[in-house]
Amino acid sequence: MFSFELLTNSDGLNMLASPREERIGAWAGVVALLCYFSAAFLPLPDEFGRLLGFSFGPLFIVSFLGIHAALNGDADGIALRVGVIFGVIAGAVVTTLLTIQIGNQMWLDQAITTSVGAEEVAAAQMLWEAVNRVQALMDVSWDIFLSSGAALIGVSMVSSARFGPLWGWLGILSALLLLTLNLYTFPRGPAYVGLVDVGPILALWFGAVYVRIILFGTAPETHR
After folding, report:
1. How far is CA 165 from the centre of its chain?
2. What average pLDDT does this structure show over 188-197?
3. Burial label, 119 (beta-carbon count in 10 A; 0-12, 13-18, 19+)
4. String of b and e for 135-154 (b: at least 16 CB within 10 Å)?
5. Is the separation of the CB atoms in 102 and 50 below 8 Å?
6. pLDDT in tens, 99-142
7. Which 3-state string (H, E, C) describes 56-121?
8. What is the pTM of this model?
9. Cys-Cys link to 76, which of 59, 72, 150, 198 (CB 3.0-4.6 A)?
10. Between 216 and 157, the higher pLDDT residue
11. Residue 124, Cα to own-chain centre: how many angstroms?
């Protein structure tokens, strides 16, 4: 049976680590990013877009176990283990966030469709705006766990022969910048106050990490 102790114990996590888990996790991460950006930016049928959106969080969770499998050989430690735990939590939070966000939008569309007159439409929109603040605040929670997990994994990468200081510091700096901007602009968020949203930069870093794991195999000495 899977337990939380498995994630907090180095021997337990090492039981999960193998070249196969490493590649599976990396591919899950690539597919997760494709699902997220496709659902967000492509003109897809609603049902398909929802499926992609709901798939992002679970796939993102699997990707963190793959990242651990790639790093635990020469960089295992408390930073990596806590980073993986934070990543798993982030995946669960973003799944809840997207469920609320998509569901609220569907309820609004239905309310507008069945409304009679401008006053009912305005009332439905006001109700949606109030409820929408819940998912907007959950977005901050997602960013906290995401950026904290990425920063800790970056700390592990600094001492890793497979990745090294450059990869590690890129993750640390982009994650800390994302966290700082979100806390500074709380509760609105950087994009709503005219600042840069660093989220896509961190997503690119994760994507590059996944691709590196897929392309360069599992032997640490081949990545120096």
Report:
1. 22
2. 80
3. exposed
4. bbebbbbbbbbbbbbbbbbb
5. yes
6. 988 888 787 777 667 666 677 777 777 777 777 777 788 889 99
7. HHHHHHHHHHHHHHHHHHHHCCHHHHHHHHHHHHHHHHHHHHHHHHHHHHHHHHHHHHHCCCHHHH
8. 0.82
9. 72
10. 157
11. 31
